[in-house]
């Protein structure tokens, strides 16, 4: 497991610790031989992770749709830039390249990318590990929602540990290395 897709925001968030911890994640990845696969942005959490990876000698592959490349801030520091025609192709390419998936703080786009990988794991499209980088408890409400969905019978109980909340890069990667596929969703 070497290539890690990270879904995260192009915003900084209001607390400086989001950027600091994002940079720390990138540094940890580089120092431990992991390659970053991400959305190719140079700002916000996305840029901080990329900078941590590249400042410490790692590799960062960015996947950017042509339409966004024309109006967003595509990084000029990338090890490799892959241009695609649509957001769908971006997500597919990132999923194809990655050995595991991380969600770090972000907005609706990050959630959408994360939940696609989450649901794909449930239906057997992939069996790759997923984890959530829970900086400052950011994803506690998400975990509460997932627990509620399990409690109400909309997500199978076995998926309670599909995407663990992790408070440090070491915890994230430990969860990847201890991951065991949970199997395909069953229907009553």
From TrEMBL:
Pfam families per the UniProt record, alphabetical: Lysine_decarbox (PF03641)
This protein's record includes keyword NADP: no
EC number(s) per entry: 3.2.2.n1
Keywords of this entry: Cytokinin biosynthesis, Hydrolase
Top-level EC class as recorded in UniProt: hydrolase
SUPFAM superfamilies referenced in this protein's UniProt entry, alphabetically: MCP/YpsA-like (SSF102405)
Keyword Hydrolase found: yes
Family in the record: Belongs to the LOG family.
Protein name: Cytokinin riboside 5'-monophosphate phosphoribohydrolase
Lineage: Bacteria, Bacillati, Bacillota, Bacilli, Bacillales
């Amino acid at each position: 497991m070497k290539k890690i897709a990270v879904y995260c925001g192009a915003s900084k968030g209001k607390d400086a610790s989001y950027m600091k911890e994002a940079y720390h994640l990138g540094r940890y990845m580089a120092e431990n031989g992991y390659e970053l696969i991400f959305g190719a942005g140079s700002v916000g959490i996305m840029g901080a992770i990329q900078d941590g990876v590249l400042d410490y000698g790692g590799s960062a592959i960015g996947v950017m749709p042509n339409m966004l490349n024309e109006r967003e801030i595509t990084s000029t520091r990338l090890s490799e830039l892959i241009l695609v025609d649509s957001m769908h192709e971006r997500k597919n390419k990132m999923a194809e390249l990655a050995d595991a998936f991380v969600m770090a703080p972000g907005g609706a786009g990050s959630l959408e990318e994360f939940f696609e990988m989450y649901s794909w794991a449930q239906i057997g499209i992939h069996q790759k590990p997923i984890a959530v980088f829970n900086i400052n408890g950011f994803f506690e409400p998400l975990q509460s929602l997932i627990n509620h969905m399990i409690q109400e019978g909309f997500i199978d109980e076995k998926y309670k540990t599909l995407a663990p909340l992790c408070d440090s890069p070491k915890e994230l990667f430990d969860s990847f290395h201890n991951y065991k596929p949970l199997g395909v969703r069953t229907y009553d």
